[in-house]
Design goal:
5-stranded mixed β-sheet; alpha/beta; 21% strand; single chain; two-stranded antiparallel sheet
């Protein structure tokens, strides 16, 4: 009886609190149009929302010091970048609050295969969220967000890959 009462109190408290901090910090959700962005990769290639139109795009926001980000990088290399080879797919890792020189050293050390771009002032990140990394956003060919997640959990990562592959069919 006590366990049921405690569970009920916890559930009611959860409903009163409402959104989690991660949800409150998220500005863009599945179904929303992706914000206009522009970035230059470490290789010197410039991209904008306009140049990426018609492609399925995965944007991964990360930081070099972030444990979950570092755990996710090998998966992004092997499960996404190396396996999803399609002319209609583009992915980029955007280093939140990092400059290109720092990211270049980090990318070499971590053997990152996919394009990386710097976002030293959070000007890109701020369009998607206020806090928390890693964050992944999958944008469809029509510019709408198909998927977004915070943190690194394999089940969310697998769902993201499934959505990317489905959109590329």
């Amino acid at each position: 009886m006590k366990a049921k009462l405690l569970l009920m109190i916890v559930m009611i408290f959860g409903l009163l609190i409402g959104e989690t901090d991660q949800e409150k910090a998220t500005k863009i959700h599945a179904g929303d149009m992706a914000p206009e962005i522009a970035f230059t990769t470490l290789a010197g290639d410039a991209y904008t929302s306009e140049t990426l139109k018609g492609k399925v795009v995965l944007i991964n926001f990360f930081a070099t010091w972030c444990g979950p980000c570092n755990a996710e990088i090998p998966h992004l290399n092997t499960e996404v970048f190396e396996k999803i080879k399609d002319d209609d797919f583009f992915m980029v890792g955007i280093g939140r609050e990092h400059v290109a020189d720092t990211l270049k050293i980090f990318a070499d050390k971590k053997d990152i295969l996919y394009p990386i771009a710097a976002d030293p002032d959070r000007s890109i990140y701020r369009k998607f969220a206020d806090a928390y990394i890693p964050r992944n956003f999958v944008i469809g060919k029509d510019g709408k967000v198909l998927f977004q997640c915070v943190g690194f959990e394999q089940k969310d990562f697998d769902k993201m890959i499934e959505i990317i592959k489905e959109e590329l069919k």
